[in-house]
């Protein structure tokens, strides 16, 4: 049976090599960690619940990696870089090997994004992973959902529906599917957020479905859009446009800043309506993921 102190030891120094570069001046060990920055600090929290946000039979390291990656995606959507994160784990599991496996996933993603773990908590209950992330702007600008202007182009950077296909393949036992990593190991688009941070007018991460999340941008910016359905790269079918868990960035950008590698999927309009345009006969409704 795992003791609380054994668990703390497993996580104590994860990412400690990044303390200095990320402004951590008092690391874990006291009642609070302390970090400093000459820039604004941004923060977000994400909860991942077993059976809802991840399957019950995946490896603990995969649970850890995925739970942290989806939280870091919010930092990317603000055009910022992550500087630290905390973990709160609710669990009824007593096996120390489970937590050791889980900590391996935490170590891996900490290394990839060069972000330290600075605190956490353990409690008994249904398996639930809560991640708090902290970040700061790369330069001066923080991207928001508001700010899209008439004439801006709407862009994404990858196919929609890849994570949906990955989950389907995982549940059906397809071991060699290239899509499974899209679900289990989503890429937090930190570098893309950095690239567009000074040129995009608005941004959001596509966690609940492209159309549903784009609608948040349009509502926050008090604008509408023409959506070019034929230009949206989907994985299986046009219904992928409403699939969640892709964790791409959807952003609006003036024409002069467009790049060939961005998928242009629409244009912002003064008219607040959302108009779908398709010569292929595609017909869709906005049906994103609902949390309640």
Task: Give an overview of the whole structure.
The chain contains 7 helices and 12 strands. It is α+β, with helices and mostly antiparallel strands and 292 residues long.
What are the SSEs and their pairings?
Elements: H1 4-11, E1 24-26, E2 34-35, E3 42-49, H2 60-77, E4 80-90, H3 96-113, E5 117-123, E6 128-137, E7 153-156, H4 162-171, H5 180-184, H6 190-196, E8 202-205, H7 210-221, E9 224-228, E10 249-253, E11 263-269, E12 274-277
Parallel strand pairs: 4-5, 9-12
Antiparallel strand pairs: 1-2, 3-6, 4-6, 7-10, 7-11, 8-10, 9-11
Concise account of the structure shown:
The chain has helices at about 5-10, 60-75, 95-115, 160-170, 180-185, 190-195, 210-220; strands at about 25, 35, 40-50, 80-90, 115-125, 130-135, 155, 200-205, 225-230, 250-255, 265-270, 275. The chain is of the alpha+beta class and about 290 residues long.
